[in-house]
Specification:
Helix content is 73%, strand content 0%. The chain has 8 helices and no strands. The protein is globular and about 60 Å long.
Length: 285
């Protein structure tokens, strides 16, 4: 049991590290592309780097982040719901590009028609997402004992299903509107979920013990500062609007990356303090 527990804990921790790795990879790709441009310019948003040589890294990062957010278990039901919702939305941000391609690139990509790409990729995503939600529904309704879902988990799944159906209906009934607006809608909701996750950690919701109450309190305070930084970033975005989109996105993603690194460090140390026969207690975000 101890050996199996150690294997599970290491797998879980490495999954957390994967999210850190791909976010850093995206940052490096964007920075390198910026340095390669003749005018040393920036695109208007991180999403606009979809149209630059960052293309593959941008899509791969968002898909990986989405998978990790869904797989990882939240420390509270609400945080778990936010992780799942964010995980559902991240691939949409990747598969439906922003209509604003920008004009700053080291080399313009020769792209196929966006509508064809969106149609193929989103249909595939809707199919696999529908299967995943159906499996989650079956698991939730048939779970017994300590694994039985509470009403908050059922409500969270209901919200996910409703969001999923709304996306399918939007895609099928108003394709032009979907192609032009789904990216912005999914990105806004994704950032809202990310901010919500950080705020819940800042409120000290069900942290695992690390080495003592003082250290736990220190982590919680730092999460509070990160949440305040995110709020200030959003305020700047509201004030300066389109001229600040890129920097607001960089600030939000940078702060989330900092949060994720600190939370992973906290979790890692908590795992060292946890008895090896209770691996389930480690599976919290």
């Amino acid at each position: 049991m101890a050996a199996q527990s150690d294997f599970e804990k290491r797998t879980y921790n490495y999954l957390r590290l994967a999210m850190i790795g791909v976010l850093i990879m995206l940052a490096v790709a964007v920075w390198r592309e910026h340095r390669q441009t003749a005018s040393d310019c920036w695109q208007g948003s991180i999403s606009a780097y979809y149209y630059t040589p960052v293309h593959a890294v941008f899509i791969g990062t968002l898909v990986t982040v989405g998978v990790c957010m869904i797989v990882l278990k939240g420390a509270s039901t609400l945080k778990d719901v936010l992780l799942n919702l964010g995980g559902l939305l991240a691939p949409v941000v990747a598969f439906v590009p922003t209509p604003n391609a920008g004009s700053c690139w080291s080399k313009e990509l020769v792209s196929r028609g966006a509508a064809d790409d969106i149609g193929n990729n989103m249909v595939a995503y809707f199919w696999v997402g529908s299967i995943a939600l159906l499996v989650s529904l079956v698991v939730g309704l048939t779970a017994k004992g300590s694994a039985k879902w509470i009403w908050k988990q059922k409500l969270g799944l209901g919200v996910s299903v409703a969001l999923w159906l709304a996306g399918i209906i939007w895609f099928r009934t108003s394709r032009d509107s979907f192609d032009n607006n789904a990216h912005y809608t999914a990105a806004a909701l994704l950032f809202a979920a990310i901010i919500g996750i950080v705020v819940l950690s800042a409120l000290g919701q069900r942290h695992l013990p690390v080495t003592g109450a003082q250290e736990k309190k220190a982590f919680t305070r730092i999460y509070g500062l990160i949440a305040i930084g995110m709020a200030l970033s959003l305020l700047i975005g509201v004030i300066f609007r389109s001229s600040a989109i890129l920097w607001v996105e960089i600030a939000l993603l940078g702060l989330f990356l900092l949060y994720w690194i600190l939370r992973t460090a906290e979790q890692w140390r908590a795992g060292q303090e946890t008895t090896p026969d209770i691996p389930a207690e480690l599976h919290k975000v």
